[in-house]
Design brief:
alpha+beta; four-stranded antiparallel beta sheet; 1 helix; 29% strand
Length: 62
């Protein structure tokens, strides 16, 4: 298993089942599963969570 990566405010983690997930700073799985780490990284780079998981940590737009 590789080290956890952080992309666009999300951690990319491989769970026990071998699948890759985007995980919020609070530890919640917000997208996935993905078959490869590269696929999860690609999705995370453009992911916008409308529920506000990662976006809540960003500064508000003025």
């Amino acid at each position: 298993m590789s080290a956890t990566k952080s992309v666009n405010g999300y951690q990319i983690k491989q769970l026990k089942d071998g699948q890759w997930w985007l995980v919020s700073a609070q530890g919640e799985n917000v997208a996935g599963p993905f078959a490869s780490e590269a696929m999860a990284v690609e999705v995370a780079s453009v992911f916008e969570d409308s529920a506000g998981h990662a976006s809540a940590r960003r500064s508000p737009k003025s």
